[in-house]
Protein: Na/Pi cotransporter family protein
Amino acid sequence: MYLEIIFNVLGGLGIFLYGMDHMSSGMQKLAGRKLKKFLAALTTNRVVAILVGIVITMLVQSSSVSTIMTIGFVNASLLTLKQALGVIFGANIGTTVTGWILALNVGKYGLPIVGAGAIAHMFLKSDKAKTRALTVMGLGMIFLGLELMSNGLKPVRTMPEFVRMFAMFSANSYFGVIKVAAIGALITAVVQSSSATLGITITLAVQGLIDYRTAVALVLGENVGTTITAILATLNANVNAKRAAYAHTIINLIGVVWVTALFPFFLKFLSYVSDPEKNMTVAIATAHTTFNVANVLLFTPFIGYLSDFLCRFVKDDGKINNRVTKIDRLMLQNSNIVVEQTRVEILTMGKMIQNMFDEISVAYKNSLELTDEKVKEMSKIEEEIDLYQKEITDANFYILNNKDINESLRIDIRNNLLTSDEYETVSDYLMRITNSLKKLHDKEIPLTEQELNVILKLHDKTNLFFRKIDAGFQNRNSARIKESLIIGKEITSLYKSAKESSIDFGTRADATTLSTTNYTDIINFYRRVSDHLINVIEGYADRNGKLRIE
Structure:
């Protein structure tokens, strides 16, 4: 008998957790475009930040994921502490949707839902349809797991030893409420899933093993226990990220303190909204939502004060962030966010490359007057672009190895990797052009008017080629990127003409090995820049299912 109970409860819990994971990951994939707009929606307006937190948590079905993601933005300096607090408040409300999903109480339909989802997943072809099927299957597994746990615990109601054990955890006094809330917090901290402990709480209450008061007290503690995930995630994060994680704990802890102090009145208020005698699951879900909504309403006016308090008492640890991008390791839990932030970082690389083009233009107009300081500045830009490319590559290869990402996202990741890699190489060649011009300047060897005209034409045309491709990338317009190929062909024609004329330049009376070599190097470097920009075009054509461009 005992073994059967253990098998049913353990199996049901495992299926429940697995289903929750499937549904959460499926929801994240289906909500990809909405998640990409996350950064754009962030604002100093605390109400909007709270709404963003609610929506994102409802979409991903995990307050831990949305909270850690938010803390990742703080760690990357994309969010201020005040903005993050608003999103965390919203996440606390958004997570209560899980309770209402459980309140649907369709456990007996869990198995057919799982079956329908699995069969659909086998026969459907598109990635999006398969993801929908997995999400439905996850939902069915949640209901099936709860049903197995509930059936497994039914015999326990008639076992005196279990009844006595559960009677020890009763919220029949103030200290009893505190004790039960602490147990809820401890179990959730160990499991690191408030959804799991909420499911167990509902199962125990439905089977009559714990009363409604005890279930509510457990739910209160679960809200504190779930904050441990965020704290663990910030062990190596910067001080602002730690402040955000501590704020999450403080908000929920103080919420539990004031509700437990007014516990009889809280239960009295809940009795006007729902009746546990009619539907225990709905009553528990109502308590969960009411607590979090009330807590957010109470704390919202004090976001600024809480932020100031944390800044004052959680001192700066002196850690220096050596990263150049704002792609934080805590973002890696959500591939869509990494892909979108990568695009932002590549656009920053594009601005830096355009700056290099502009500086070289100035050098041509000023008769190659390149100071050592200016060359150092250009070298610093090129080195920084190298770091951008490395950090982008590390993050995107990490999520590319995730087998759960769909083909559309995989194409976006590969295009981002290709573009960042080619941009980095373009910056290398622009630096080589700068060094060649510096050699001519230091040796006081001017380019002839004819040579300068040829190089200027190559420079301007190559710069235009880059700007067209960068604009297409910025606007997510792959067609515009491909259309710019005609400029690449013009550069090839200019290069061939310059190469032929370089033979004539080398026979002039004042020609030297240095002047001829550097002139040839410069036109070759522009050709190489063009080649790498063409690689971007071909990559986009090939990876979007089109023929490669000849």
User: Anything to note?
Assistant: The domain at 334-543 is CATH 1.20.58.220 (Methane Monooxygenase Hydroxylase; Chain G, domain 1).
